[in-house]
Write a structure and sequence with these properties.
This protein has 285 residues and is of the alpha+beta class. The chain has one domain (19-38, 53-284): Deoxyribonuclease I, Chain A (4-Layer Sandwich), CATH 3.60.10. Helices cover 25% and strands 28% of the residues. The strands form three sheets. Strands 4-5-3-2-15-14 form a six-stranded mixed beta sheet. Strands 6-7-8-9-13-10 form a six-stranded mixed beta sheet. β4 (108-112) and β5 (120-124) form a beta hairpin. The N and C termini lie far apart (36 Å).
Length: 285
């Protein structure tokens, strides 16, 4: 999300904002009780248990494009420990850093870097297939990726829905039209997929009751974090005063979640979300 300033350590990462954006930030601070959660509650971690056959872990992480040389944020990618990591805001520098740092840990990698916040990437311990970068109906593209996992051959859709405004809008009108735009984006991306995805994940820039998330839920997808730790935030702003759940992993009926948790590490304005999953039992399909 491009509007907010992340809380974090001494990373030296800063964002500039126009006068109108600063006004909206102040309005958001006033409205935070209505639209978000104040402060950071105690975070729930993973349930410690042996991995069973057919399980694997998947994470989504908006790394924040200027943070490629921030040591703590780069280290956070490795701390996830997930088998497959979907990444948003991948810049050419981020690709270079990830290739150098995690090339051995994640032998299968796909990158579609971009300037600003539009780049995407995937790190995987399992073989990957590029099934097509999907053109953005509004701002950022999505990416359909095939991956051979212990739960079978799956299609994953990596998304980054638009944040504060679409091109040509001011921030205030952008905020009011975001819900309809998100539904348009997710509808467009699903229609463009050459194969139906079993997982749709990434930075949705909306909460669990948002239009895009609910559109998927109504079509049989399940929000992994809502199943295990509803309300757990994945985003922070205003020095950590404002938190919200903007990142999601949604699973089709072929899959089921065993656990889902947020790792509060790094100096991105987003925290990574990790999900442990497996194929659903035949009787539930």
């Amino acid at each position: 999300m491009l509007l907010m300033v992340p809380s974090g350590g001494n990373s030296g990462i800063h964002r500039s904002a126009s006068g109108s954006e600063r006004v909206v930030v102040r309005l958001l601070a006033v409205c935070v009780a209505a639209f978000g959660a104040l402060g950071c509650s105690e975070v729930a971690g993973p349930v410690e248990r042996p991995r069973l056959p057919g399980e694997f872990t998947l994470a989504t992480f908006n790394v924040y494009f200027p943070a490629a040389d921030d040591a703590e944020t780069v280290a956070t990618v490795g701390e996830l420990g997930a088998d497959v990591i979907l990444l948003q805001e991948i810049s050419p520098r981020w690709q270079q850093v990830l290739e150098q740092r995690y090339g051995e840990s994640y032998p299968y990698r796909l990158f579609a870097p971009a300037g600003g916040a539009g780049g995407l990437g995937v790190l995987s311990r399992f073989p990957l297939r590029d099934e097509g970068l999907l053109a953005p109906p509004i701002k950022h593209p999505a990416w359909l990726v095939g991956v051979v996992t212990p739960a079978g051959d799956l299609h994953l859709l990596n998304v980054h829905l638009r944040a504060s405004k679409r091109p040509g809008q001011n921030v205030l009108s952008g905020l009011f039209s975001r819900s309809s735009d998100h539904e348009l984006e997710i509808r467009t991306f699903l229609a463009a997929c050459r194969a139906p995805p079993q997982v749709v994940a990434g930075d949705f820039n909306e909460g669990p009751r948002g239009a895009a998330v609910q559109w998927l839920v109504q079509r049989g997808f399940a929000d992994a974090l809502e199943q295990h730790h509803p309300g757990e935030p994945t985003f922070r702003a205003l020095g950590g005063l404002y938190t919200s759940t903007l990142d999601h992993v949604l699973l089709g009926p072929e899959l089921t979640t065993i656990d889902a948790w947020v790792l509060r590490r790094g100096n991105s304005d987003h925290w990574p979300l990790i999900v442990r999953l497996r194929r659903a039992a035949p009787e539930t399909l």
